Amino acid sequence: MSVGYYSSKKTDDICEDVCGQQSSRAALSMSRLKCILRGLDFKTYIFLLVLVPLGILSVYLHGQKITYFLRPIWESPPKPFQIRPHYYHNNVSMENLCRLHGWGIRESPRRVYDAVLFSNEVDILTIRWKELYPYITQFVILEANSTFTGIPKPLLFATNRDRFKFIENRLTYGTVGGRFRKGENPFVEEAYQRVALDQLIRIAGIEDDDLLLMSDVDEIPSAHTINLLRWCDDTPPVLHLQLKNYLYSFEYYVDNKSWRASVHKFKKGKTRYAHYRQADVLLSDAGWHCSFCFRHISEFVFKMKAYSHYDRVRFSHYLNPKRIQNVICKGADLFDMLPEEYTFKEIIGKMGPIPHSYSAVHLLEFLLNNAEKYKYLLPGNALRATLMLRINHDADNHFKIWNKSREHVGEVKDSRSVFLLLTFCLYIVVAHVLSGVASARDAHILLAQLYYNRRNPNPAAAHALVLPFPCSFHNLKDAFIFHITVALLRLL
Questions:
Q1: Positions of E strands within 194-325
Q2: Helix, coil or strand: residue 115
Q3: Domains of the chain: which residue ranges?
Q4: Is residue 462 predicted with pLDDT exceeding 50?
């Protein structure tokens, strides 16, 4: 009997032979890993092969939703606004209206400048300027030949300028060249264009104590709100406007939390054009914000790829016209996101599609007077035109949106293929270690052929599994694990 302790524990001959070999460090490390994994029980195999990949898939598909749902944990709500009541009626005099707000009355109204950055919202811009026309001294508009994300675009306002002859004598129009810097944060390009707009406002002739309206094209203050502010004295130097939030059209009322639009008493050297919070006072019920309110599906796609939050387009199928139309009809979210709120109560309360609203009371006058032309913005008209438009660099008035490289939205052309490739690599490693296939080369060839056949457009080949070589297993458990791996890979 040999000196030492005797152990009756059974050993795995394969592991014993492999672990006892003299080999390279890399080969020895892989062998040890194989020995460890072969000692795991069946439940552990299922965990590695099923639960772990499913967890990775869930995070990949819904990671953004998870972070938005947990937002109340990692981000505090902003400081609340001081909301001022808003009084208005056609039959109440301006003097009484100013007094109701706690302001005095002026002998003459202030001049008002409306300044916007323009992308492709021709219809909304028309409705905006028709609403504000009686009270605006100068309309200032800046257009760039690129989007915030660096996509070249035609000068659409220049092309459609004939539609705006009614404000031609009050119009200051400027253009700015895009910088076309790939990979740059789009908010940098947006800030660059807003600085250019700031210069254009000064060129338009604005003076101290004039009112400057800062808002996006789709953030439309009501005409009576602007008239009130130009006549009343002792108003705040900066006043944010609370607008009713609508999505896709005036059929989907979201809430009244739009606040970025603001009115400033201009001060030379101090006032700068911006689109963030600049004061704490908010005038309630001051207009409308109609986001993604477009006539054509192609315009939705263009904006999804062009605006500063392009990173929300996480998958290429988000740009599919049929999907976009279906989302509009349901009142769901184009980017499949959870509500951007700061409490769990508000997040849960706003989850799901936006309820339909069938009220068109107190909407914009020009919109209702031209309801047939703009019926897609009114309740009950969710169906959009699917006209496919094209773009060129000769100031053509159309868009080409389907053949642009996906690099403009920071993604590869088929993000699902990336996931499939990563999953394939994961299963190859696991199958190599656990399957008991006699040859590592055989395992790689087998799974590579399976993956190729699964991705092959030929339906017959897509489900074929050809074994060009004999495949042996050490026991039934190894064979079962291997075929489960193959089946899961086929399902992907």
A1: 211-214, 219-221, 232-233, 238-241, 243-247, 253-258, 262-265, 281-283, 287-291
A2: strand
A3: 13-69+414-492, 82-409
A4: no
